[in-house]
Each structure stands twice: as C-alpha cells, then as structure tokens.
Amino acid sequence: MTDPVPLTAWLRAAAGGDGDAGDRAYAQIYAELRRLAARQLGAANGQATLTPTALVNEAFLKLAGGSLAALNDRRHFFNLAARAMRQTVIDHARERLSQKRGGDLVRTEFDENIADRTLDAPQTLAIEQALTALERQDAELAEAFSWRFFTGLSVQQIAELRSVTVRTVQRDLALARNYLRLALGDMP
Amino acid sequence: MNDAQMPPLFSAERWRELRALIDRLDALSAVARAKELDDIALIDAELASAARALATAESTVPQDPANDGPMQVQEAMPAQIGPFRLLRPIGVGGMGVVYLAERHSTDFTQRVALKLLDGGASQASRLASRERSILASLVHANITAFVDAGIEGGRAWLAMEYVDGEPLLACCERLGLDMQARVRLFDQVCAAVAHAHSRLVVHRDLKPTNVLVSRDGTVKLLDFGIALMLDPGEEQTAVTRVFTPEYAAPEQLRGERATTATDVYALGLMLYELICGKRLPTIEHSGEWTTAELARYATTGTETATASHTNTKIATHLLRGDLGRITAHALAPNPGQRYQSVAMLREDLQRWLDHRPLGIGRPGLAYVTTRFMRRHRAAVAIAALAILALIGTSSVALWQAHEARLMATRADHAKTFLAALFADANPFQSKRSGKTTVDLLRDAAQRIDKEFADAPELQVDLRTTLAGGLMRLGEPKLARHLQQHSVDQLRQMHGERAPQVGAALGQLAIAMEESGDIDDARAQFSEAYTILRGADDAYGRDRISVMTGLAKMANRQSDHAEALRWHEAVLKEREAKEGPESADIAMDLMNLSADAAYQENFARSETLAQQAHTMLEHVLGPGHARSIYVDNELGASEVDMGHCAAAITTLGNAVGVARRALPPGAGMLGITLSNLGHAESCTGDDEAAIVTLREARSLLAAANDPSVGTTELKLGMAELRAHHAEALQTLDASRVHLAGVTSRLASATETALWAQAAYGAALASSGRLAEGERFAREARTMLLARKSASHVTQAEIDKLLADVLDHENAAGEARALREEALAAYRRVYDAEHPSIRALARELDSTAGR
C-alpha cells in the first residue's frame, strides 16, 4: 500500500529537523480533517456534531493507509493530527458562535469512561484556553491529553507511543484533567 | 493556541514541586494521603489545596454527584445495572467500560463481565431482539457466553460470561509454550470464529487482545457482542466503522464490508504474532506474502507487541516452512484467494500438527480458480454482460437524480445477485453439486423472480440477458420460457399494447425461432411489430430487431420480396438513427445484398455487398471480425456474377480474418471456406476447391451447422467434375442432409432437389444409369411443380439431367435440356458469365452431331 502523499517521508524529515516538511505534513493532515469534518457536519444536516476520534481515524486511514510502521512516525502523526484536530474543533466552535447557533458541537473522548460527551461552542473554547495554559505549564501532559481528547487514542496506544506504562498514562491523563478543571474554575 | 491567552496556573518551580508531591501522594493509601495533605496544609495551604485538586489517585473513587459536570473526572460506577450488582471496573474498551458484576439467586452467585456501552439511546436501540437472539445463539466453549442485555438509563448494557484469564500472547510467553502448543491454542480461537461464521456472525475486530486464556487453559474469544451490534447493516457511515487499523484486512481499509474472509485475514495476523511474538507490519507491504518475507519481518519487524522470548531463530525457520505458507495463504490481499473458510484454515493447521502435507496444494488456489473460471467461462461472461446491460439501461433511461440513485442501488443489488450466483458455484462446494453453467443460469432465473420482485423492469432486463446466454449455450427452450414470463409480467404492468410488451415479444420471438418454432416466432414477431410500429424512437432498436426477425421469417418461407421490404425498412430506420454510415448499416446493406441474390438480382447484390464492404472498412477498419460476414456475402455475390478471381481474393481474405478472429472450429469459418471453394470451382480449379470444401465440410459437420448439406453439394459437384469416386457418397450425404433441412427452411427444398439431381448424375457416371436417371428426372419434375423456382437451380438440374442422358445416348433430349438451361442462365447472368460461356461452348461443340 502506498501513501497517497509522502507523509511518512515528511514525518521523518520533520523529526530530523526539517521544519518545512513538518509544516507540509501538518497542512496535509489539517486539510484532510477539515474536509472530513465538513462532510460529517454537512451530512448531519443541522444536527452538527463533530466526532474527533472518527475523523482522525479516517484521516489516518486516508493519509497513512491505516498504519505507520515506525513508532516515531506514528508519534509525529498523532501529534500533528491532535494539533490539526484541535484547530478544526476551534475553527468550528468559532463558526458556530459567529452564527449564533447553539446545540451540541463536539463529541469528545475526554475520558475513556465517558467517551460520548458533547460540548457546546463556549465550552469548547474555554477548554481550548485551559489547554493552552496547560501546554505552557507542562507540554507532556498537554500532549497526552490532546492525543486522548482530539485523536481518540486509547490509553494503551498512548503508552505505546510514549514508551511508558499504561499506569503512567492514566495518571498523566487524570492529572491533566484535574489541571484543566482547576483552570476552568467555575465552568459548569 | 491563538487568542486563548490564559497563563499557566503555576510557576515552573511551583509546578515541579506540585508534581513531586502528587507522585508521592499517589503512592499512599487514602488515609495516609489525607493525613499528609493536612500536614502540608499547615505549612503551605495553597500547595495542599492545589495538590488536593490535582491528585490523581483519588479520581478512581466515586465523586460527589453534584460535581458531575462536563469535565467530570470519571464516571461513577453505578451500583446496580439490571439484575446485576457491580463490583469493580475491570477494563475499558473502545466502546465502553467493563465491570465485574454479579447476580445472586438462591442457589448460586453468577459473575459476569458487564459492559456498559457508550453512545446512549441510539446504540441502545440497536439491541434489537433479533440481535440479542443471535448473540444468545453463539454458544461455544471458546466464546464468552452471552448472559443478558438490556437498557438502563438510556444506555445499553451487555452481560457476558466473566473470564478470569490472561491475554493469549502473554499466556504463551509466560508459560514459554512451544509452537505445537501455541497452534493448539490458536485452533481454539479458530473454532470459535468458525462457530460464529456458521451462525452468520462476523467478528471483524479479531486481535490477540480479544483472546483470553482461562485458568484451565480454555481459550475464550471476547467481544462478539460488540462486533454484532456494530453491524453497519443500515445507514452507518464510514466514519463510525470500528476496527483496529493494525489488524484490519485490506478490504476493511478500503471501507468495504467485513466478511468471513476478513476474519480469516485477522486470524492470519494473529497466527503470525503467535509464531514470532511480533505484529506483522502489513501496511508496509502490498501484494502476496512469501514465506521468506514473513520470516524476514520476524527478525527485522517493528516494535514488539509483547515481550518476545520466542526464539527468533525457530520462528523464522517455522515461517519459511508450512506454517509460513498457512499464514501467507490466510493473508492473501484478495479475499477470494484466502482460505475460503476458517474450517479450511483449521484443516491445514491440523495437517501441520500431524506433519502431513498441506491442503493448499502446490498449484495453488489460483489454479483451481482458473480451472473453475474456465469451466464456467460462459456464465462468467454472461454475468459481465448482465452488469453492462444494467449500466447501459441506467444511463439511457434515467435522467432524474433520485431515479439514478435508485437504479444504482438496483445495479448493486444485481451485481450482488450475480456474485452470489457464482458463489453458489464455488469450486469448493462443487462436491455437493456438479452444477453446469446451464444449471447456474436456471437457478439464477428462478432467483430473479424472488429477489427482484420489487423491481420488475430489472427482472425483465436480467431475464433477457440470461436468455441471451442460454441461447448461446444451446438452451433456447429455457430462454423462451424466461421471455414468456417477462411478456406476461409486462402485460400486467403496462397493458397489452404497451411498447415494453412489444420489445419483450420481439425477444420471445427470437427464442421461439431458436427453438425451431417458426410459426410461433412469426406470429410473435408480427404482433410485436404491430405494437412497436407506432412506438417512439426509444423503441427504435427493438423495432429494428423485430423487423429483422420478420425478414428472416420471410426468407425462411422463400418470400424474398417480403424479406427485402423488411430489410429496406430496417435500413431506413437505421439510417435515420445512425445515418449515413455505421457498422450496423453495413450489416443491413449486407442483408439486402443477400435478399437481392435470393431474387437472382446478382448485379444489385454485388453492388450492395461492395457498399457494405466499403462502409464497414471505413467505420471499423480492415480486418475486423464483422468483415468476415460482409466479405463472405461479397465473395458469394462475386461468384454469382462470375467474377471468380475477385471472389477468390475477397473470400481468401475473409477466411484469413476468420482463422485469426474466430475460435477454432467456428461455423462461420466453415461457411466462408465453403464459398471460397465455390469460387475456386468457378475458376475451374476443382482440385483446389475439393481441398477447401473438404475442410469446410468437416468444420460444419462438427459444428452441426445446417449448411453442411450445401457444402457437400458443392464438394460433390467438384468431385464429380474431377472424376473422384467419392462424388457418389458425398452427394448422397448432401441429398440426405438437405432433405433434413427442408422442413425448416423452404429455400433448402430447391437445393435439396439440386442435390438429388447431382446424386443421380453421380449414379449414372458410376454406371447405375437407370437409377441415376430416375433420381435426376424426379428432381426436375418436382422443381417444375413448384410455384416459383430459381433460374440457376433450374439450369443446374437441367444440365445434370442432360449429363445423365449423355450416358444413355439420348443426345436430342440432352441438347434440349442444355438449351433450356442456357435460356435460364441468360435470364439472370451476364453474357460474359463463365457458366453461360461454358454452356454455350458445349452446345456449339455438339451442334454438328
């Protein structure tokens, strides 16, 4: 199976310090996610709900043919995908707000035990702010959270990607969530 | 990101402090943790407060429900779901949380793994009773038993047998199992999957982590319930399909439906992982796996999925051998080339365990498939045609988008239908029923009635396609039955006089004609034409088909003038449709040329044939298979005109194209050769003609072609002229063959009489004078008794009788006959025609006697 775009090559070049390659890979993934999101939302016919996990899963299939053999490549892919998905979710939340339409917005994998939460646009943007804070506080925690939240990777998969134990990932995710909750303070 | 400018909550130093504290707290018991935090609060209240909020270990403990917001840390474990009391969470799957739960009754306590599915009511509603009953039917020692299911608080739950076990790969590694033991465990997985397949349930997400080994060594396959409830039978879109990409089969990655072959693929991957402890990086690879490649990845593969104590050397050795072949066969990229069932995979595993040769023989499945395709080539070709026919229909007849969609669905259905048809003829099931192509088509015809009951127009299309195939396979009666069914159906739907009925009647008439029921065929063609005469242009093609059929009917009854009228009408309609040049118009011109020849208008026949030839070459280029028919006609008309050398060139080319383009033994090659032989006789080269005509005879006899009698007549005449002794036998056979055909083809009667006269001449020349004269005289009497007779035939019979009389020294009558023959020739031939010149010479030479 061949890559539709030389994604693997870009990811590797990016890992080797080629920033342009990283940008290209990001742009590719972002564009794909936007496209998929537009389709999902279009098909939903007003009942717009984004399912980041499904979108990333599909982008992964589309762009990487369903798998990247090397651990590093996959780590880079999911990093970029999480970033791109995050941007997609925010773009969408802003669009929704500007259109003054309410309703459910983003179906998240915020927690493995409640995978099917939906957040509305203000909540999404608030989480985004809190996540930015966490990113500056502790990039690793934010990364783990983004993977889980925006790409739907399982705890197990995150552990594999980060070469740590499942237990560590679980603790990191819990810590990240608690941090965000703390940062959001009075958010319902 | 962007304008979200919230600062971090803590300074970097404070954060380091906090994390260290949290790590420490996590290691403590709840009581010790509370005490520690209280202690810290005395020194640094802020730090203690932050740590309390952030500490993670607490998060597994149910929280105050009042705190449940969107950012809730973890869902509280419900105390009770259905009849089950929940004990503790035991796992998190892609679709929800699994709890250990138990149900008490007076006699026993039942422990279950209770899965609470995410997704709320929409998924809950999928727990339809049908699916529950299928799940309940999956009773197998190696499948976790279904216990109960229900909906609680808008969420679906599913209770399955609780297995206190260990994941398959971990178990193998821990016990250091050898390959024989691993294969035996794997076989239990296969048994579970095979059982499910026999209940029409596909797992679609088979992977090592879905397999547990219980304490007593029994393998248990998990998560069938999930697979079942995710069946995207209805409107699920691709985005919600669930599988694990690393274990997905190529067709799953392409977004196609999972089938039993998909599970076979996943089992292949699982087997590979059992052998070498590594996951096969399937995506890096395209095409078939060789055992060498499998072995190579065992040493160089990507990260290990489990701790790999497996001796890599042993693994690569095994992968190069039969175990590798089994794996590779299960991993074939094309689902159709994998093991056709899990049972066959198990069979080979057992053979491996017993050190017997594998069932996947050296020639490979491809061999069997090819053989099957060869055996059923006709059926396969017809299936392809049927699909084309459907596509054709939809593109012509449909212009509204929704109708197009509907049609696409139907075409899909039809495709599936045809695929299923061939699945029935699966080579592996052929033990049960040695079905022939005709059987397949007969079955298909029956299923059209059932499976397309809601799409009658499509039924008609499919039946017509199948009927065409049946006719080509020499089963016109069955074809006729199918078409009759379509006619009846269309009459009910659209009324007696609807153009659809006319079109179907035309098809029915063709099947009748092929069945030999000429009178019925003629009646149906006529009725079809009455209906279609006023139909609009959309039915032009059907009208042409019907008119062509009527022309054929007229020719059969020697009503060549009538045939000519129909063919002219066809040409007119076709020119209006396809104007001025097309391959079909060339064929119409060819038909008109033949009509002219029947009416002995040879000059016109030659002109028309020449036009047809030029047009066809212009449209299709030289050497096209259709040119065989046109050039055959052109050559025959050239012979009629006495243009013998031109005829030899034309027919020589036609024979060359026929030899290249037609399958060996095709009847059309025989017909073309027959005319070439005639042309050779025309130039006077009877010896060459005899060679050519003998080849034609054997081809036509083998093809059971009715024109064999005519060819024998030409051959016998050439043999007679060349004084070959075989002439008698050849002409006897010709006479018998043509007499057999006369009942079906009126114009053959004249030819049969010609053959009878020729046989008489041969008898006379062999010394059986009286007998010969009787045959020849009777033939002439019978010909003259006919309402009309061809001048050429009359002249030929006159000449033959004259030859007989020569032997009897009845010169006067012989001369009179020859003069009559010459007069007949002159009515239809040019003065320069070789037959006229030869006969005139003969008469001149005997004039003095």
UniProtKB/TrEMBL annotation, chain A:
Keywords on record: Sigma factor, Transcription, Transcription regulation
SUPFAM superfamilies in the record, alphabetically?
A: Sigma2 domain of RNA polymerase sigma factors (SSF88946), Sigma3 and sigma4 domains of RNA polymerase sigma factors (SSF88659)
Start and end residues of each RNA polymerase sigma-70 ECF-like HTH domain: 7-183
Q: So which domain of life are we looking at?
A: Bacteria
Residues passing through the membrane, by range:
none
Q: Which Gene3D superfamilies match?
A: 1.10.1740.10, Winged helix-like DNA-binding domain superfamily/Winged helix DNA-binding domain
- InterPro entries given for it? HTH_Sigma70_ECF-like (IPR053812), RNA_pol_sigma-70-like (IPR039425), RNA_pol_sigma-70_dom (IPR014284), RNA_pol_sigma70_ECF-like (IPR011517), RNA_pol_sigma_r2 (IPR013325), RNA_pol_sigma_r3/r4-like (IPR013324), WH-like_DNA-bd_sf (IPR036388)
Family assignment? Belongs to the sigma-70 factor family. ECF subfamily.
Protein name, as recorded: ECF-type sigma factor
Naturally occurring in which organism (per UniProt):
Dokdonella soli
TrEMBL record, chain B:
Q: What keywords appear on the UniProt entry?
A: ATP-binding, Kinase, Membrane, Nucleotide-binding, Transferase, Transmembrane, Transmembrane helix
The record's listing under PROSITE patterns reads: PROTEIN_KINASE_ATP, PROTEIN_KINASE_DOM, PROTEIN_KINASE_ST
Q: Which InterPro entries match?
A: Kinase-like_dom_sf, Prot_kinase_dom, Protein_kinase_ATP_BS, Ser/Thr_kinase_AS, TPR-like_helical_dom_sf
- Positions annotated to bind ATP: 115
Q: Give residue ranges for domain Protein kinase.
A: 84-353
The residue ranges crossing the membrane are 378-399
Report the PANTHER family cross-referenced here. MITOGEN-ACTIVATED PROTEIN KINASE KINASE KINASE 20-RELATED, SERINE_THREONINE-PROTEIN KINASE YBDM-RELATED
Official protein name in the record = Protein kinase domain-containing protein
| UniProt organism field | Dokdonella soli
